[in-house]
Amino acid sequence: MTPARIAGAGLGLRRALLDELLAASPDAVDHLEVAPENWIGVGGSAERRFRQLAERYPLAAHGLSLSLGGPDDLDVAWLRRIGLFLDSLGIADYSEHLSWCSADGQLYDLLPLPFTDEAVRHVAARIRRVQDLLQRRIAVENISYYAPLPSTLDEPDFLIAVLREADCDLLLDVNNLYVNQGNHGTDAIALLDRLQRELPAGRIRRYHIAGHRQEADGLRIDTHGAAVIDPVWSLLRVAQQRFGPRPTTLERDFELPPLRELLVEVQQLRTMQRDA
């Protein structure tokens, strides 16, 4: 199958949404984003319904377990399975997290890297290896983090250095920028300005947007378990002003409402893309 890029406003696919999406209008969303880890080898009714949706909607793939910044060797056998999955579904757009999640076994969390030159060299070399194995240019996502590590670079320096050395793209997660700004006092708009000044706009492949939870002490937790709040919508608008409209995916992993409520947010994305 010939790989195809996604466009427009999309939704992260969760199993709980399978039946509602199959019953929805074919133009309900412009694309679906899938985690290969959730669908490779799934089998049964879930796979049948997933394949039906894959015939209806363009797909993007967003990985969870490569541990691009981790100490363990890349799992080449798993990468080959991912490549077969992408090829069989005609998925051109594959992304992963700029993080690590394994050390002699999966840790089941997306952990931050120190913002250092050594970390840039390490993760960029692994990204290049992944791109060689998958025969695709990939995108990496900026993550939310809660315990900053000793660093010699700031986050914009780190992101720009990784993108340049790895020769890959950025999946810009707007909610993560907002969460980090609230937790660490970083300046999300200043980060966007740095990216705009120092990278071609085409290196920003697409956007993520999501909801989060704010604790009583002010800590923001990137839960993907609530509606997107107004300041995050506003930050997405700033990103669109800097880089133009890009394919944008709404992520919702927990406390899933009825599909009709998620589609209200998808329609808001469409409106913003049209007006950008």
Give the amount of beta strand, in percent: 15-25%
What is the CATH H-level superfamily? Divalent-metal-dependent TIM barrel enzymes
- Number of helices, where a helix is a run of at least 4 consecutive DSSP H or I residues: 10
As for the CATH topology, it is: TIM Barrel
Radius of gyration: 18 Å
Numbering strands along the chain, what is their spatial order in the largest sheet? 1-2-3-4-7-8-9-12
CATH class: Alpha Beta
Q: Which parts are unreliable, with pLDDT below 50 for 5 consecutive residues or more?
A: none
Main β sheet profile: 8 strands, parallel, barrel
Distance between the termini: 33 Å
Question: What number of structural domains do the residues give?
Answer: 1
Helix content: 40-55%
What report would you give on this structure?
The protein has 276 residues and is an alpha/beta fold. The chain has one domain: Alpha-Beta Barrel (TIM Barrel), CATH 3.20.20.150. Helix content is 43%, strand content 17%. It has helices at 18-23, 36-39, 44-56, 76-89, 117-134, 155-166, 174-184, 188-198, 230-243, 259-275, and strands at 9-12, 31-34, 59-62, 94-97, 100-102, 106-111, 139-141, 169-173, 204-210, 213-214, 220-221, 248-251. The strands form 3 sheets. Strands 1-2-3-4-7-8-9-12 form an 8-stranded parallel β-barrel. A two-stranded antiparallel sheet has the order 5-6. A two-stranded antiparallel ribbon has the order 10-11. Helix 5 packs parallel to helix 6 (155-166) and helix 8 runs parallel beside helix 9 (230-243). The chain is globular. It starts with 8 loop residues before the first strand and ends with a helix. The model has no long low-confidence stretch (mean pLDDT 95).
